[in-house]
Amino acid sequence: MNFAALYPVVASPGGGNYSVNAPGSDRLDQTDIRVDESVSSKIELFQRFSLSQDHRFQAPVFSGLADGGSYNTGNRPLSTRGLVLGYTHTISPNLVNSARIGFNRVHYISNVPAYGQNYPPAGLQFPGVPNNPLINGLTLLQPNGYRRLGEPGYTPTRSTTQDIQLNDTLSFVHGKHWLKMGPQFRFDQFNLLQIGQPRGRLSFSGQFTAIDPGNQLDTGNGLADMLLGDPVSAVISTVTYFGNRQHSYGAFVEDTYKAKPNLTLDLGLRYDYATPFYEAHNRQSNFDYTTGTIIPAGTPGYPKHLSNVDKADFAPRIGFSYSPFASRPLVVRAGYGRFFIFNEIRTGDPLQTDYNLPFFFEPSFIGDGLNLPQTPTGTPVDLTNGFPPLDPTQAFSGVTSQDWRLHTGVYDEWNIDLEYQVPGNILITPAYVGSKGTHLQSLVDRNQIPTPSATFDQNARPYPQYGGFTSIVNRGNSTYHAFQLKAEKKSSHGLYFLSAYTFSKSINDQPEICCNAPWPQNSYNLAAEKGLSDFDNRQRWVNSVDYAIPVGKGQKYLNRGGVADAVLGGWHLGGIITFRSGFPFSPVIGFDPTNTGSQGLLRAQQTGSGHLAHPSINEWFNVNDFQDPTCNCFGNAGKNILEGPGEKGADLSARKMFNVSERFHVEFRAEFFNAFNHPVFSQPDNNIDDGQGSTGVITSTVIPQRQIQFALKLEF
């Protein structure tokens, strides 16, 4: 009753509706300073300092402890500091050394509630939730069909990232060779406090107040279950923070060789080594699949940083530029390079070995699991017992693991293009671009139940004492092929334009590691995950133009000064016009028919193509071509077999330079983003279980409607 009393009073009795337009604000202040200094004729220095301070606030739905907001509500102060020092020494006319050192720091505290991080007063304190000033707030209650109460999960987030980079490049010219070489060092830190449910979360489905036991969710009431104190599930997280570290070392040598007047070769070799990321105080652990045990960092007999990495990452680079005909403006260019993608310190997702036992666990309670009867006895039950003392043995905790032998992700990239100049000072450039990725970082669940069945059986897991695994592996693959056509007109007669068209196809066998269900639906059938990449964009055409109107002093029309030139002269009109096809998506279902504990997006059973001749925002694909599997099996629909809405957009601008004096100039700009107010729609609802009126329906846009901004810039 105390929790329910936090809901605001509804203005219309019996209406049951409450609307709020919560205020928000965002202020950004930024300063950049650069100083260049010639110490002598041979030594030059530069320093650059950048500072930005951003403070964003978004009020939640309710006031005070009731909150009811999301991860995007509350205060979010963010500060960024950057410093670069540069040193260039011209040792001789053909020998130059350049050194750089850079420091960058980003710190933010995300989503701190305006009412403070306070422990709730008596009557709203949930038993078993610790009193910790770092995360204090109201336990999150989620009654089905009603707005939730309490502070949202993953708040507050406190993050500090620091990077130090050192580079040195020695350049010298010898005959037909221009050689460059040097080392590079980088030291990264990432410190994070971000806990999923630090104050606990309780969900109320309405099943305990259902009239019809056979149709519980339709006849019960989530708020009534909450008043009785009967959650259908609950979860709470232990509080931990970590400081990840990684060191990277590299060196390169490059030779630009002028083999002939019309042939230039670029030959290079790069070497890189990066340590596995590690926690500064050994607060991370890995899983030993041979013994079925969790291994904390520092355990004797195991790698220092819980994994070993490649130490022979040599990356060759080769390219050439060739002009075959002296009498024709034709240039042929081609190149190949290998690029390593190191297992980086990820900055925000939960897929890290720091979120592991014994440093972190998140026990969940299924059913009426807070030491209460499985079903009510008819007498209202309160939650005086709350969460029991947190013990990692009391629940099926998940595990995050990484390969003990990490392979460095590799991209092999190649391209060839022709450049030909046609009359009108226009360059035409057709090109082919390709790439192949191997050993890319991806996820599987190595504790998923191998065989589908009619019921879920925890004991059927390979390691039944644990829940689902976040198994980080280096087994991902990708390919990309593209035809590109570019036409560029150099500025003449007041006109400049650039038109670029791309026809491409990108395929991978798993989504990129991030926050959007990157697990396969079946970790034992990874071949079924091969398909179009989520970011595949088959066709894209972008045009940019700038035109100086020939009016005013020195121009073809109204060639005079005075008021006419001040008002009409010197204007430039420009814009960026974009056309693109849509991004792919998969029809999915909202439950696991296999009872294997799959954590991935489970795809539907496909009976037709799913395509419509005339899709609309109310019916983007033929939902009748997809259904729930009728057996305890995975759906046969492929990955990303349908395409979402494309884009047609135009950003326009007008600018004019005012010459105040010989030394002072003022530029005025007017810019119109999405100038024609054309909606660019988001992907449709792809869950076929959402039902008629939802599945296949588009309910939002992905870019704002028309926005206009004006700017003045002073140059002196």
Task: Describe this structure as you would to a colleague.
By secondary structure, this protein is an all-beta fold. Helix content is 3%, strand content 44%. The strands form six sheets. It has a 22-stranded mixed sheet that branches. The protein has a four-stranded mixed sheet with strand order 5-8-9-18. The longest helix has 7 residues, at 222-228. It is globular and about 85 Å long. The termini are far apart. The model is unreliable at 368-382 (pLDDT under 50).
Write the layout of secondary structure elements.
Blueprint: E1 24-38, E2 43-58, E3 74-92, E4 95-110, E5 140-143, E6 157-174, E7 177-193, E8 201-204, H1 216-219, H2 222-228, E9 233-235, E10 242-260, E11 263-274, E12 278-279, E13 285-288, E14 293-296, E15 308-309, E16 313-322, E17 330-341, E18 364-366, E19 399-402, E20 405-406, E21 409-422, E22 426-444, E23 469-492, E24 495-508, E25 531-532, E26 539-548, H3 562-568, E27 571-580, E28 584-585, E29 605-606, E30 626-627, E31 642-643, E32 647-659, E33 665-673, E34 707-715
Parallel strand pairs: 5-8, 15-20, 19-23
Antiparallel strand pairs: 1-2, 2-3, 3-4, 4-6, 6-7, 7-10, 8-9, 9-18, 10-11, 10-12, 11-16, 13-14, 16-17, 17-21, 21-22, 22-23, 23-24, 24-25, 24-26, 26-27, 27-32, 28-31, 29-30, 32-33, 33-34
**Which stretches of 5+ consecutive residues score pLDDT under 50?**
368-382
Q: Helical percent range?
A: under 10%
- The strand count comes to 34
Give the oligomer, counting copies of the same chain as homo and different chains as hetero.
Answer: single chain
Describe the biggest sheet? 22 strands, mixed
The tally of helices reads 3
Mean pLDDT: 90
Structural class, please? Answer: mainly beta
Question: Strand share of the residues?
Answer: 35-45%
User: For the terminal residues, how far apart are their CA atoms?
Assistant: 67 Å
3D shape: globular
Q: For the CA atoms, what is the radius of gyration?
A: 31 Å
